[in-house]
Specification:
Helix content: 10-25%
Order of helices and strands: HEHHEEHEE
Strand content: 15-25%
Distance between the termini: 107 Å
Strand order of the largest sheet: 1-2-3-5-4
Number of strands: 5
Shape: elongated
Radius of gyration: 30 Å
Largest sheet: 5 strands, antiparallel
């Protein structure tokens, strides 16, 4: 075959052959409707996976490491937030928050969170251990009552153990 041969002048296809572009991603589905979209009045409901929702009241949350120093830090944060809201600081507040957080830290998880809600002169303070544990000290709830809690309790949820107190801010 010579260079003048007609077969030698034919263009050769590119190797490797070009591949087609990847298919386009389908559009995202529309977001789920909210109560505002549906026109239904808001009502008491639990959130995703049975988690508690807080509505129509002031609230705050603080994530903390599960360390012994977390109790003091949580107590200061709760006290400061109540002061910011213009609420009276009960004498028992420091001891209650420290005991709540100490009980959550004792569950052995890596983190705890402290939740505060205020409504009509009452504060709900909750410590969440983010750890499933059946070994709650039997003295925790009586000690919380002795410290001045109006009511207190504990329960297991999908998020871990909750230990909570309801405190009258007027006293």
């Amino acid at each position: 075959m010579t260079h003048t041969d007609p077969e030698a002048r034919k263009p050769r296809p590119d190797y490797p052959p070009k591949t087609p572009p990847p298919p386009k991603r389908p559009p995202n589905p529309p977001p789920p409707q909210t109560e505002l979209d549906t026109g239904r009045p808001p009502g008491p409901r639990s959130g995703r996976a049975g988690r508690t929702l807080m509505r129509n009241r002031r609230g705050a949350t603080w994530p903390l490491e599960a360390q012994p120093w977390s109790a003091g830090r949580a107590s200061a944060q709760v006290s400061d937030r109540l002061k910011d809201w213009g609420c009276a600081r009960p004498d028992a507040l420091d001891g209650l928050v420290r005991h709540l957080v100490g009980a959550a830290v004792a569950d052995g998880g890596r983190r705890v969170s402290v939740h505060l809600a205020e409504e009509n002169g009452h504060a709900l303070i909750m410590a969440l251990s983010h750890q499933s544990s059946d070994a709650l000290d039997d003295a925790v709830l009586p000690r919380l009552r002795d410290l001045g809690a109006g009511s207190c309790g504990t329960e297991m949820t999908v998020d871990g153990r909750q230990v909570w107190v309801l405190l009258d801010l007027a006293s």
